[in-house]
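Summary: Need help interpreting a holo structure output

Steps to reproduce:
1. Submit the protein chain below together with the SMILES for nicotinamide-adenine-dinucleotide.
2. Request a joint structure prediction with the ligand placed.
3. Inspect the structure token block that comes back.

Expected: a single structure record containing both the chain and the bound molecule.
Actual: see attached output.

Input attached:
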Amino acid sequence: MTRSLEDRVAVVTGAGSGIGRGIARRLAEDKAAVAVWDLNLDGAAETVKMITEMGGKAIALGVDCSDKAAIRAAAEQTRSALGTITILVNNAGISPAMPFLDLGDDLFDTTIPVKRLGQPEDIAAAVAFLASEEASYMTGQTISTNGGRYMGSA
Ligand SMILES: NC(=O)c1ccc[n+]([C@@H]2O[C@H](COP(=O)([O-])OP(=O)(O)OC[C@H]3O[C@@H](n4cnc5c(N)ncnc54)[C@H](O)[C@@H]3O)[C@@H](O)[C@H]2O)c1
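--- attached output ---
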């Protein structure tokens, strides 16, 4: 665990699976109350179940993050249920990629240069740090959490 996020309220969009779920779980582990927003309400509810089973506090909301009215309504519901939102992780997105097993050997070797696959927890640890007081003076930085896949900007 990095820093305590006690008394903080976090919204994590797209937290019904993948990286968002990893971030939501990590912020809850660091004691934030977490609103899990996702188009996929079943996935969001599963994330909340994981968090409550480990003793954390979370709510699930079915939200289409491309719909401003839905976002406003969800923000209001979150404030009513958990309090003022102080952390927003805008993670929801669609990430089309070719199936992993379709990667040829050459592409595999350049895609996974450090010989391991990234895990949601890798991103979650960086987010928990950025949300903490320790990072309160940081602005405008790009933090690469990709195992070295990209070493520069493009
Ligand atoms: N996995 C990667 O390698 C990778 C690489 C670059 C960027 N990203 C980005 O990271 C984020 C998470 O990726 P992931 O791999 O965990 O993907 P994922 O598909 O597992 O999770 C994305 C989640 O976002 C939700 N979502 C999609 N559209 C939504 C909407 N309009 N409103 C609310 N929820 C919505 C989905 O239901 C899903 O639960 C995405 O924004 C993705 O584009 C991922």
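--- end attachment ---

Reviewer comment: Residues 13-14, 16-20, 38-40, 43, 63-66, 91-95 surround nicotinamide-adenine-dinucleotide (CB under 6 Å). The first strand starts at residue 9 and ends at 13.
Status: needs-info
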